Amino acid sequence: MADDSAEDKTEEPTDRKLSQAREQGNIPTSQEVKVWAGLVGALAIVAMFAPHMAQDVQRLMLPFIEHPHAFPMEQADVGQVLAEVTLSMIKLMILPMLLLMVLAVASSMAQSGLMFLPDKLTMDFSKLSPMKGLTRIFSGRNLVEFVKSLFKVGAIGFVIFLVLKSHMSEYAGLAALELMAVMEYLRHQVLAMILIVVLMVFALAAADWFYQRWSFNQQMKMTKQEIKDEHKQTEGDPMIKGRLRALRMQRARQRMMAAVPKASVVVTNPTHYAVALQYDQDSMGAPILVAKGVDLIAKRIRDLATENEVPIVENPPLARALYASVDLDEEIPPEHYKTVAEIIGYVMKLKGEIAH
Predict the structure, then answer these.
(1) CB neighbour burial string for 325-334, b if at least 16 within 10 angstroms, e if fewer
(2) Checking DSSP bridges between strand 265-268 and strand 312-314, what pairing results, if any?
(3) Percent over 90 (pLDDT), the chain
(4) Element (H or E) spanning 301, and its range?
(5) What are the tens digits of pLDDT across the range 268-323?
């Protein structure tokens, strides 16, 4: 059978389907949000760490620039110098890199929450298929991503061009400045460019965030048949449920009818309602409703009561009230004590007269 077309998928996805998609790692995420978080990190690095890093770099590199002849050039000495420089650079980059890592993780968790997907760690050789790879490359989703990338590159390039062009006349004078002054000037330029790019990418990330959720919702939509099939899987086949419900009702009715011969009295409407009450003064605090019914079931209760010599008393208001407010095997509510007590008292008196 052919796959359902997108036109057939008109129903919103169920919670079960969304939950299954999440368990498989299929959730809407925006890469632009992660890019924006990275740019915010870069902005923070330039604003907070760059001055100190520039001083450290100057302190580290200045001896090489001012006194290059003072450094021994033997192979062992050069290796030691390079190792010291590399270690110093690593120390300088630890905090900025940690900041970028934290922002990357935070931007991902903000969209998807904390997830552990061991299935994603296993090798899926089907993904190595060249045909499937080409299909993914030329899919509509990747086309959208390609257009977004072109827009980002073009916009960022245009911003950098404008910033550089507006300060072109100042660059000639940088040669007369000291190294720290040049680096501070460049820091402000980079800071301005990153800030503008952050604002632009924020707008793009916000739009992409909504687009990804809309696209995911469209992808998750279901056909009416899928809704029915899922309902059968979770709730059971309606026909089977109906038969089981009917069977339970039949068994409950059989138990109810078996209790009628033991009832103390049956209160009727007289034809539409019938309620059977049982009361034992020694073991019960209040009368218990053991059977009730309307129309045909009420008639069956009356017939059983007659066959087993259970007294039948007509009291339409009481019969309707007990039928509506009391479930099987429950005590009658206090508001009916007086009326029921009068009826049971009358029945007991009647039985006493018959016995004599």
Answers:
(1) ebeeeebbee
(2) parallel
(3) 7
(4) helix 296-307
(5) 987 889 999 988 888 888 899 999 999 899 999 999 999 998 898 889 998 999 99
Amino acid at 94: I
Instruction: Tell me the C-alpha to C-alpha distance, in Å, between residue 87 and each of 36, 49, 94, 289.
Output: 30, 18, 11, 88
pLDDT tens per residue, range 207-235: 888 988 888 888 888 888 888 887 777 66
Q: First-to-last CA distance in the chain?
A: 82
Cβ(45)–Cβ(92) under 8 Å? no
- The two three-digit tokens of residue 66, written as one number: 């001012």
Cα–Cα distance, 17 to 5 (Å, whole number): 18
Full DSSP string of 271-296: SSEEEEEE--TTT-SS-EEEEEEETH
339 pLDDT higher than 80: yes
8 Å CB contact between 16 and 234 = yes
Closest CA to 39 of 158, 211, 200: 200
Q: Which of 283, 286, 316, 281 is nearest to 298 (CA)?
A: 316
Q: Where are the domains of the chain?
A: 10-115+126-232, 257-355
Count how many Cα atoms sit within 13 Å of the Cα of residue 131 in the half-sphere of its side chain.
1
Residues 307, 303: Cα–Cα separation, whole Å:
6
Closest C-alpha among 52, 322, 335 to residue 180: 52
Across 30-42, average pLDDT: 85
Q: E strands, the chain, where?
A: 265-268, 273-278, 288-294, 312-314, 330-331
Q: Which CATH number fits domain 257-355: 3.40.50.300, 3.90.226.10, 3.40.1690.10, 3.20.20.210?
A: 3.40.1690.10
Say if residue 119 is exposed, middle or buried (CB neighbours under 10 Å; 0-12, 13-18, 19+). Answer: exposed
pTM over 0.70: no
Q: Are 222 and 9 in contact (CB under 8 A)?
A: yes
